[in-house]
Please model this.
Amino acid sequence: MAEDALNRELQDCISRIDVSISNIFAQIDILAREVCAIWQQQGSPGKAPAARDLKSLRPLIDSHLAAPRSCLQGTGVVLEPNVLQDREMYCEWRHLTTNGRIAPLDLNFNRSSDSYYNYRDMPWFTRPRSTGQRVVIGPYIDLYGQDTYILTFAQPLNVDGRFIGIAGADIALGRFERILVSGLLKMSHEAFIVTDEGRVVAANTANWTAGELARHAMSRSENHCTVVDLGEQASHWALVQRPCIRQLAGAA
Amino acid sequence: MNGKSTPNAGSFMRLRQEGRTEEVVRRLMEAIDLGLYSEGQQLPSESELAMQFGVATVTLREALAYLRQRGVIETRRGRNGGSFVCNSVEIPADILLDQLNELSTIELRDLGDEHVAIAGTAARLAAKRGTEEHHQHLAHYIAALGEAQSRRERRRADARFHIEVAAASQSVRLTHAEIRLQAEVGELLWLPSASTPNPETVQQEHQAILDAIISGDSTLAGALAEAHVNRGIKRLISLKLELLSSETE
Model:
């Protein structure tokens, strides 16, 4: 295949994936604006909102979770400790249960418990706090949270220059795959998407599966693979195109 | 299989704790589906089944009532009465394809990870703990795969081989896990497609595992079983990608 036809395939695929990532951040941003509005409505500085003030977010959160073709497993806001007047740790986070209903995510904030969910140290919380940037974390198993294999998208919430928490969404990789793979499957060569740590997010061949580390394929990339960073920078994802033509299952 | 009686079916299914009705239903369905109880065969009496599952008779009756309603079993009254397994039809391929369509490649990979762990360990232990009798059972199901006339019979012979390996490991937990995994993935592995292996290929792979088990080479038996499971899952992932591909065209 001609060089520029190959390049076009690659660019098409990348722009599809960029769009799917920014669509998710667009939803998170709506939520973030709503939270900032709640903080501003509290008016006088020094007076912090209470947990009940965040209840008004629920219809918006539910509408995001119930949207057709949504890949959201859960979404909401997680607050920096002690920004509320009446709680230390708090989240207004709702998720889809195994039977498809929407329910609040019940996290354990009891320090002495084995399943203590200490989000203060979790990368989807610490990174937006320290960098002020959006992040995509994972794929990873959200232990004691969702207990499933997810990606977490998060963006910092800043009010008057002060970090008050994050707005985010958990993406079920199993459902997001359909979107990611649709572009990859249009490519004639084996290709996959990797995170900055070299973990495969999606692939168009059974030779690579999501969750595997593809570092060694990457290290040979100078000679054999084309590696292109995605435009959507929050993800730190790259598309890797391998030199081999994609084999169909029937031909395997 | 093939009309052979399966006197040990119950021991595969003993529940450790007070089980719920759904759990009993699931276990019985799996057992019937895998041919541990074959069509037309009479199930053990209610009290016997209740004892095997370690549940109250009332719980077992609820489970049987559900299966009767679903047409899985029928109950005949009278002196020779009891619960019998109904003849069922082969699951049509398009329903299986729908089932595959519901699974993501991530779920398939994860299913494969678990199956590799279970089948690999079972084969390693079978090489250390299996006896002549187990070897004969395993050889029987390899032969049955060759004689099988339908997709369903092939699938059952294939599943039974793996379950018998787990039984040879002497581990009830591994055996339960293998039964559950076969119920989940077994049917899909024989889905008709261009990449479906012919029975002889699978027979050869099973035979290689059996040879390693007979020679007591646990490392080789484990490695062969793992590679065998991996090949199957890889095939399913390829097939799934094909489905996704035809969807987006």
Remarks:
- The CA atoms of residues 112 and 149 of chain B lie 27 Å apart.
- Confidence is low (pLDDT under 50) at residues 1-19 of chain B.
- Chain B has two domains: 17-85, 93-247.
- The two ends of chain B are 43 Å apart (CA to CA).
